[in-house]
């Protein structure tokens, strides 16, 4: 299922940015990576960038290039529509969106601004885009200059238009409502709309409704004479300094902008003095009109002041400048953090964010989607923040994954290795990881080294291991890391990026050992397919399990599946389905299935069964019509390592599925193995599932 939300407005100047910024903040608090996409943007001059995109990508540090975040400019769409190329428009938008969707856990899609001609056509385009992307919508309208009936009617018509086209609407927002009318508007909307549609009503905010000195300077093509460091000052009001100073001072208000001819030294100096006086309100800036610059003596006096507000010089006269400032449409841009933070605060205050987040997470969810699964994994890990040791502290992928894990605030990390070498490696690779945020331990220099070696000696002396041998073994990072877990100095270990599976798990088998009642350590992969998550086992540990071992692998895999929110429906795979096949291999699977049913009659299990019958409802119905598993299996148990390992890799490579694991099952404490071909994301995900495993110990 698609994981995205589409923000659409019914008109220009509705304050759509407040919803975009608020939603980004909401989403980033609940998922690892959020992408941003604007299907159609306004035309921008050569060398310039779209302000909306720049603001979102910059402030939230979204890992996207600006050109990746949009599909078309407005003029490009008009040109293509004139050529009857609507299909091409939609196709390209879908392609751009899918590219972003593949990189991120969630995508915030922002519709057009209605700043051009043809509002009806533009509305239809927004509905069409949302429908074709298969994502729900948030609809926004401004209450400015509208009666209650007009505002509510406008929003209901917009809602009805989307629903008629098959697009679900999760939230309706009335923005720029007079504060005294917020409750009235909310109640009217709730009464008019279905109960499952959320309502937010945001009052007019003077900070968001006023331009900054920077915006004024850009609109007037002004020269900044002084105070450029404060160019983002907010303008609360403006007035012309044409009267005598003693009278003008009485008109000053908080965050006022003073407009005066450039030769009025009395007004200029009086305003600057009033700004620093405790008896007058602070000002936002001064605009000098007529292209007049104060005399050198006045400039020198201003330069000597300790506190200078922005002073702009414009060529046009006072009348033109005053009227022009009155028409400036305030914007939110990347450097204006005050407006951004105010927008987020207003959104969080007046929109039911918790209910909205729940709707976003559960929208059309059937079972657990891959993104839902990964979201849940990260949230579970962050909720307990377990301590994971990574023995291969000098590996580039381990260091990059550590940076990602620390940034996500998901776990506490200990790296094993020489601290100076690790710091040097971080600098060499230009990885911005603060070593104060992690633990680095050199095993041989550790205060626990002798205790660990002595413990190993006591545990293994019956195997003819003496203390000297134990010390030698404890110099090995795999032994040291595993002993940290055994001693409770770490909650879990992940290794194998440069070590073999045997090297990684041998210490765990020697002294962490298996859980009571478990005789075999096995592994599973979480296979995140395009529309569901399944469990594959065993694809990494046991070459040729017998029937008893296969049954134990299946029971352990079912427990893992349930623990991670996937209802276990076990398919015991073979080259035959049901009673039709004969032979040693299929009989081994058949016997394993019987053992499972005897040991755990509560589990849904089918075997032997072929892969197609396990996943395809029609095939499953034809081959095993009475099965609870056929056609809907979620846990796949392979008959041997050869089949399992090759199948998971084939599925992963051919479908683009994310394979999370391997995750080892059956140990008393979590130790997990990586493939030596693992990626940074593989390491990240394996650490996350190891942290979740550790919650059970």
Automatic annotation (TrEMBL):
<dbReference type="Pfam" id="PF01515">
    <property type="entry name" value="PTA_PTB"/>
</dbReference>
<dbReference type="GO" id="GO:0008959">
    <property type="term" value="F:phosphate acetyltransferase activity"/>
</dbReference>
<dbReference type="InterPro" id="IPR004614">
    <property type="entry name" value="P_AcTrfase"/>
</dbReference>
<protein>
    <recommendedName>
        <fullName>Phosphate acetyltransferase</fullName>
        <ecNumber>2.3.1.8</ecNumber>
    </recommendedName>
</protein>
<feature type="domain" description="DRTGG">
    <location>
        <begin position="215"/>
        <end position="325"/>
    </location>
</feature>
<dbReference type="GO" id="GO:0005737">
    <property type="term" value="C:cytoplasm"/>
</dbReference>
<dbReference type="InterPro" id="IPR010766">
    <property type="entry name" value="DRTGG"/>
</dbReference>
<comment type="pathway">
    <text>Metabolic intermediate biosynthesis; acetyl-CoA biosynthesis; acetyl-CoA from acetate: step 2/2.</text>
</comment>
<dbReference type="InterPro" id="IPR050500">
    <property type="entry name" value="Phos_Acetyltrans/Butyryltrans"/>
</dbReference>
<dbReference type="InterPro" id="IPR028979">
    <property type="entry name" value="Ser_kin/Pase_Hpr-like_N_sf"/>
</dbReference>
<feature type="domain" description="Phosphate acetyl/butaryl transferase">
    <location>
        <begin position="372"/>
        <end position="691"/>
    </location>
</feature>
<dbReference type="Pfam" id="PF07085">
    <property type="entry name" value="DRTGG"/>
</dbReference>
<comment type="similarity">
    <text>In the N-terminal section; belongs to the CobB/CobQ family.</text>
</comment>
<keyword id="KW-0012">Acyltransferase</keyword>
<dbReference type="InterPro" id="IPR027417">
    <property type="entry name" value="P-loop_NTPase"/>
</dbReference>
<dbReference type="InterPro" id="IPR016475">
    <property type="entry name" value="P-Actrans_bac"/>
</dbReference>
<comment type="function">
    <text>Involved in acetate metabolism.</text>
</comment>
<dbReference type="InterPro" id="IPR042113">
    <property type="entry name" value="P_AcTrfase_dom1"/>
</dbReference>
<dbReference type="Pfam" id="PF13500">
    <property type="entry name" value="AAA_26"/>
</dbReference>
<dbReference type="InterPro" id="IPR042112">
    <property type="entry name" value="P_AcTrfase_dom2"/>
</dbReference>
<dbReference type="GO" id="GO:0006085">
    <property type="term" value="P:acetyl-CoA biosynthetic process"/>
</dbReference>
<comment type="subunit">
    <text>Homohexamer.</text>
</comment>
<keyword id="KW-0808">Transferase</keyword>
<dbReference type="InterPro" id="IPR002505">
    <property type="entry name" value="PTA_PTB"/>
</dbReference>
<keyword id="KW-0963">Cytoplasm</keyword>
<comment type="similarity">
    <text>In the C-terminal section; belongs to the phosphate acetyltransferase and butyryltransferase family.</text>
</comment>
């Amino acid at each position: 299922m698609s994981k995205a939300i589409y923000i659409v407005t019914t008109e220009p100047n509705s304050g759509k940015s407040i919803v975009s910024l608020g939603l980004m903040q909401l989403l980033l608090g609940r998922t690892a990576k959020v992408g941003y996409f604007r299907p159609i943007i306004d035309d921008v001059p050569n060398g310039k960038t779209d302000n909306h995109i720049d603001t979102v990508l910059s402030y939230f540090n979204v890992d996207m290039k600006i050109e990746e975040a949009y599909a078309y400019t407005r003029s490009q769409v008009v040109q293509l529509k004139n050529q009857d190329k609507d299909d091409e428009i939609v196709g390209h938008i879908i392609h751009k969106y899918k590219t972003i969707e593949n990189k991120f856990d969630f995508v915030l899609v922002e519709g057009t601004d209605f700043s051009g001609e043809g509002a009806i056509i533009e509305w239809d385009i927004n509905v069409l885009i949302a429908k074709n992307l298969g994502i729900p919508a948030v609809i926004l309208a401004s209450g400015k200059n509208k009666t209650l009936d007009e505002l509510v009617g406008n929003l209901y018509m917009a809602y009805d238009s989307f629903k008629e086209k098959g697009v679900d609407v999760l939230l309706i927002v009335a923005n720029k409502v007079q504060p005294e009318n917020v409750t009235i508007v909310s109640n009217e909307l709730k009464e008019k709309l279905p109960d499952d549609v959320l309502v937010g009503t945001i009052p007019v905010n003077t900070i968001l409704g006023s331009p900054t000195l920077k915006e004024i300077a850009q609109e007037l093509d002004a020269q900044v004479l002084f105070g450029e460091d404060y160019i983002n000052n907010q303008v609360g009001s403006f007035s012309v300094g044409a009267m005598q100073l003693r009278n003008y001072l009485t008109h000053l208000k908080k965050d006022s902008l003073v407009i005066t001819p450039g030769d009025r030294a009395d007004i200029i100096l009086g305003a600057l003095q009033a700004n620093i006086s405790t008896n007058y309100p602070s000002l936002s800036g001064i605009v000098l009109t007529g292209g007049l610059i104060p005399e050198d003596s006045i400039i020198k006096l201003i330069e000597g002041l300790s506190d200078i507000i922005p002073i702009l010089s414009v060529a046009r006269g006072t009348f033109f400048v005053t009227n022009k400032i009155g028409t400036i449409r305030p914007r939110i841009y990347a450097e204006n953090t005050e407006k951004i933070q105010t927008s987020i605060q207003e959104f969080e205050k007046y929109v039911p964010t918790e209910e909205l987040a729940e709707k976003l997470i559960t929208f059309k969810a059937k079972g657990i989607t891959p993104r839902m699964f990964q979201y849940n994994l990260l949230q579970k890990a962050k909720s307990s923040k377990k301590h994971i040791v990574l023995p291969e502290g000098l590996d580039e992928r381990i260091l990059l994954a550590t940076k990602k894990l620390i940034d996500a605030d998901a776990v506490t990390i200990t790296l094993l290795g020489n601290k100076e070498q690790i710091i040097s490696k971080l600098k060499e690779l230009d990885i911005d990881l603060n070593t104060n945020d992690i633990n680095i331990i050199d095993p041989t220099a550790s205060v626990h080294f002798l205790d660990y070696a002595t413990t190993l000696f006591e545990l293994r002396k019956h195997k003819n291991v003496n203390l000297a041998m134990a010390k030698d073994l404890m110099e090995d990072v795999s032994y040291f890391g595993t002993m940290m877990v055994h001693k409770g100095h770490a909650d879990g270990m992940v290794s194998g990026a440069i070590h073999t599976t045997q090297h990684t798990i041998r210490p765990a088998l020697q002294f962490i050992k298996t859980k009571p009642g478990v005789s075999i350590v096995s592994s599973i992969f979480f296979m995140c397919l395009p529309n569901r998550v399944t469990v594959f086992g065993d694809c990494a540990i046991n070459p040729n399990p017998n029937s008893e071992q296969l049954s134990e692998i299946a029971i352990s895999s079912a427990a893992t599946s349930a623990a991670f929110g996937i209802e276990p429906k076990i398919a015991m795979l073979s080259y035959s389905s049901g009673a039709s096949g004969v032979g040693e291999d299929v009989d081994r699977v058949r016997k394993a299935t019987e053992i499972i049913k005897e040991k755990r009659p509560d589990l849904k299990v089918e075997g032997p069964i072929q892969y197609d019958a396990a996943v395809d409802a029609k095939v499953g119905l034809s081959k095993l019509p009475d099965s609870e598993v056929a056609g809907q299996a979620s846990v796949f148990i392979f008959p041997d390592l050869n089949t399992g390992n090759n199948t998971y890799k084939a599925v992963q490579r051919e479908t683009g599925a994310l394979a999370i694991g391997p995750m080892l099952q059956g140990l008393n404490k979590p130790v997990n193995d990586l493939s030596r071909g693992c990626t940074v994301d593989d390491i990240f995900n394996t650490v996350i599932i190891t942290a979740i495993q550790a919650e059970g110990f």
